[in-house]
Amino acid sequence: MLRYERVTLVRSEIGEQTMSVLNEVLDANKKYVESFTDEVMRGLLSKSLETAALGEDGFYDVGKGPGSTEAAYIDWLTIADRNKAVVEDVERIRRHPLVPKNIPIHGYVYEVETGKLLEVPGAKEAGAAK
């Protein structure tokens, strides 16, 4: 139990630090949101544990190392295509045996800049009541 708690704590701290870095970077330039993949995260952490920078070609490492290959064992839960991810989630919920077929399931994306919910194309059809 103690080992599990330590691993969880370390994973949590690394995840929080990395997500904090991600939030800073994404606030600076939102066009790269969907290019921040698990592979990018793993690659950056394999080189160093320093804060990554964002250039015209995407994220790049600016640290001096050492990095760690341990990031390869973590699912960072990044999303390459947010609309596709929403539709897949709606479809999964629609198929769940505990969700009544007569209840519609909706899928939206929250737009941070405006505070609006944007309906995702295809989500309404995927979650339609039967």
Give a summary of the structure in a few sentences.
With 130 residues, the chain is an alpha+beta fold. It has helices spanning 2-28, 38-47, 82-95, 123-126, and strands at 53-55, 58-60, 108-111, 116-119. The chain folds into two domains: 2-73, no CATH class; 82-126, no CATH class.
Protein topology:
Layout: H1 2-28, H2 38-47, E1 53-55, E2 58-60, H3 82-95, E3 108-111, E4 116-119, H4 123-126
| Structural domain tally | 2
In one word, what is the shape? Answer: elongated
Please report the distance between the alpha carbons of the first and last residues. 46 Å
* Radius of gyration based on Cα positions: 18 Å
- Main beta sheet strand tally, sense and closure: 2 strands, antiparallel
Averaged pLDDT: 77
Question: What is the β-strand count?
Answer: 4
**Tally of alpha and pi helices:** 4
Strand content: 5-15%
Q: Order the strands across the largest sheet as they lie in space.
A: 1-2
Low-confidence blocks of residues: 1-12, 25-29
Structural class: alpha+beta
Helix content: 40-55%
The H-and-E topology, N to C, reads as HHEEHEEH
